[in-house]
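Homework help board

Subject: predicted structure for assignment chain

Our instructor gave us this sequence and asked us to write out the predicted structure in token form, then describe one feature. I got the tokens but I'm not sure how to describe them. Can anyone check?
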Amino acid sequence: MLRNTSTIKGYAIMANDGPLGHVSDFLFDDVNWSVRWLVVDSGNWLFGRKALLLPSAVKQLDPDAKEIFVELTMQQVRDSPEIGTDLPVSRQTESELFGYYGTSPYWGAGIYTGGYGDANGAVAAAPSPGVGRSEESFDDHRRSEGDPHLRSTEIVTGYHVHATDGEIGHIEDFLVDDADWDIHFLIVDTSNWWSGKKVLISPHTVRKVDWMDRLVDLPVERQRVKDSPAFDTAATVDPAFETYFHDYYRDERPKTAP
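My token output:
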């Protein structure tokens, strides 16, 4: 089911044996637009320390109780590598977490596996001495730097959205699938340009994200966005609407919303 990330923020995180804290942010990659980490504020339990949890650890989300249950113990989180969650988060930091939890990094064996195999679970063979030394040095350098594609939903909220002929609004929220944690839509508030309407934008239609100037660039004209179906924040975005919406931006002919 698609849910607003702003709504999930604040949900309590429940381990198998007790509470871990609450969700304070989400880190996503801007290539595949998938949530890679849940940022958990542990409160007084770990003396203000924050933790990064993999979405794959989530076993249930209860919107009524505002709780997320994870397949972890409190001790596992307590013993996890202590890291800073301020961006940029380095690939080395991520690799340590993947190694600790016994899973493979999402970027695959081409960058780093930390001895835990590639995305298909196969263990990578150790390179022969002297082979690929320059590639190893390059990878070491990348691991020590911040991941250039890891972004915070909290930080990106408020970015301006530009069509080919001008600004249309700003990012207000994200719609994420609580099954696979992919970001399906950006919720754009157009009130500064067109009073009272919110629209959805597929992140995969985004032409460019300018992190320095805090703007998202779209390859369509403003009128195309204005003619798109308005987003009702109280409505459920079902598969039929998703199909219609994606077809709308692929097809120049006017359509009637389902």
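Reply (TA_rk): Your tokens look well-formed. For the description, you could write something like this. The chain has two domains: 2-144, 157-250. That's the kind of observation they're looking for.
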